[in-house]
Amino acid sequence: MKIKLNGEYKEFNKDEMTITELVKELGIKAPNFAVAVGMDVIPKSEYDTFKIKDGDNVEIVTFVGGG
Q1: What DSSP string runs through the chain?
Q2: What is the distance between the alpha carbons of residues 41 and 34, in angstroms, rounded to a whole number?
Q3: What are phi and psi of 15, to 5 degrees?
Q4: What kind of architecture, by CATH, is found in domain 2-62?
């Protein structure tokens, strides 16, 4: 599977994967992040079931606090 992730193409040895699987594969440990696939922001409640497929455009944004 090949997707566009935050503007860069990435390849994975799967035909599809959930957002949760993708986040684990990428090693994202930030507690607060948002995911959009195409133009749709995916609710956190769907991360375990939403399937990312070959050719999808995925954006993952992490939030950083500070003052």
Answers
A1: -EEEETTEEEE-SSSEEEHHHHHHHHT---S-EEEEETTEEEPGGGTTTPEEETT-EEEEEE-----
A2: 7
A3: -80, -30
A4: Roll (3.10)
Q: Where are the domains of the chain?
A: 2-62
pLDDT tens digits, 38-52: 999 999 999 999 999
The partner residues of 57 in beta bridges, in order of sequence, read 4
Neighbours of 35 (CB within 10 A): 22
List 17's β-bridge partners, or say none: 52
Give the span between the Cα atoms of 30 and 52, in whole angstroms.
20
Q: Is the pTM of this model over 0.85?
A: yes
Angle value at C-alpha 37, between 23 and 59, nearest 5 degrees:
60
Q: Is 27 left (phi over 0), alpha (psi -120 to 50) or beta?
A: left
